[in-house]
Write a structure and sequence with these properties.
Elements (H helix, E strand, L loop, with lengths): L1 E2 L1 E3 L2 E3 L6 E6 L4 E7 L3 H17 L7 H17 L1 H12 L3 H22 L6 E2 L6 E9 L2 E5 L5 H14 L3 E5 L6 H13 L6 E3 L4 H10 L5 E5 L2 H11 L5 E5 L5 E4 L5 H13 L11 E5 H16 L19 H16 L3 E4 L17 E4 L6 H4 L6 E7 L2 H9 L6 E5 L3 H10 L4 E4 L18 E2 L4 H6 L2 E9 L13
Helix pairs in contact: 1-7, 2-4, 2-6, 3-4, 4-5, 7-8, 9-10
This protein binds nicotinamide-adenine-dinucleotide.
Length: 491
Amino acid sequence: MTLKNYVNGAFVPAWNGKVRSFHNPADNSQLGEAADSSIEDVDKAVRAAREAFDNGPWPRTPAPERASRLFRLADLIESRAAEFAEMETRNCGKPLRESRFDVADAAACFRYYAGLATKPQGQTFEVGDPGIVCQTVREPIGVCGQIIPWNYPLLMAAWKLAPGLAAGNCCILKPSELTPLSASLLFELIDELGFPPGVAQLLYGPGAPVGARLAESPLVDKIAFTGGGETGRKILAAAASNFKKVSLELGGKSPNIVFADSDHDRALEYTLFAIFAGQGEVCSAGSRLLLERCLAESFLPRLAAAAEKIVVGSGMEESTEMGPLISRAHQKKVLEHIQSACCEGAQLLTGGSTYNDHRSAGNFVQPTIFTNVKPSMRIVREEVFGPVLAVQVFDTEEEAIRIANDTIYGLAAGVFTRDGAKAQRVVRRLRAGITWINTYHPTFNEAPWGGYKQSGMGRELGTYGYEAYTEVKQINHCINPQPLGWFGSAP
Ligand code: NAD
């Protein structure tokens, strides 16, 4: 299987013919190869997008027509849902049931933004002059580079393409070099729907030079990026060259606060889900459990026992509850974090290693929980992006808030308590973009997603995510021009 780029309405190999292999993280077998693009491929796609935006029909296509194309794309995704889910699981490892959920969510995202495209966009303003109609309209930004990570390949593609295309932009998607597979089927469907050439394009290849070139190109108007903070910094610096619009969805070290007055069974179930769903390779993972001290003695042994029973294996097995990490390199990084926590004096409650059976061929790491952690430890401060939970205890509400906010990140946070007033008090003081009370992880296409502090810039999803793909134009219409009398020489 050799996956091609999709440039200017055609599937094409990289111009130099190079390919890069991609793998199944459950056993590290090779799944296929994808175009290994270079700067020339990026420039070609950017020129095609520029032409499509400046002179093509898409930005000027009436919104209902753009919407109808995206509604059909959502239908097509659903009609191929089983294929998409298998591709996603084979390539990024997550259990099939999670992939199925992602596929449904991706289709719903296209549908949401198709609907939003036809809803009211502009405003009129009551200004001081009754002879002026002052209004705004929203227009597409232009050529958008969209760079996505490997943990939700199809869903992240939808989060980027759906609002971008709905608003009339011309989009170039760059998936992670580790997970090119599901984008190939997505672009088959896009091809089938006959978007004008250059409107939706796909470039495979590594961050540098492909993503880096998109970020620096003077012909690109916006970069939307989801990934790690270090990469985000480079993108922001490169984008400064022509003051591109930039949106960044970055990492997190999200606290999940469990008070003693919570429903303990539900809190325990969601604590597991918060950190071990998606193998912990989730930006909003609840990787810090903040537990009220008087609850710790009864809660932690039950939590450890439940973590040990999680069924870890190939995502293709229906019974699997947690899959492998994305790559050997990432597995090594996660194991180094575990090692460093042990060296710094954290207590390993459960997990902490790989498996000595058939799973050793893949990139599996046991569900891992550390207690006795200190605020200065790396396991508390750094994003592990794996199935590793650090437990901190607190005595008071005030202390819980202080510990929760003691991080450079601010993506998400959970609070478990039966006291509604306390829950509201606490979430209002948490410096995080997404908060959950008595639940964890639900994400809605309708509501804004993004982080405070070093978890990102801007918001995706909801109306915020749509507006981020538009420029606002002010139109002042003088309905009955009168002499101005400013310069005496004027007629
Ligand atoms: P990454 O930053 O290594 O890569 C993300 C994408 O950027 C990939 O497509 C990669 O090829 C590309 N890239 C790499 N170097 C680049 C460069 N110099 N210029 C332009 N593009 C470049 O991140 P990753 O390892 O793929 O993903 C994990 C990270 O993503 C984690 O930190 C995680 O928290 C974050 N993430 C955040 C969200 C969110 O919504 N906030 C969602 C998913 C993942």
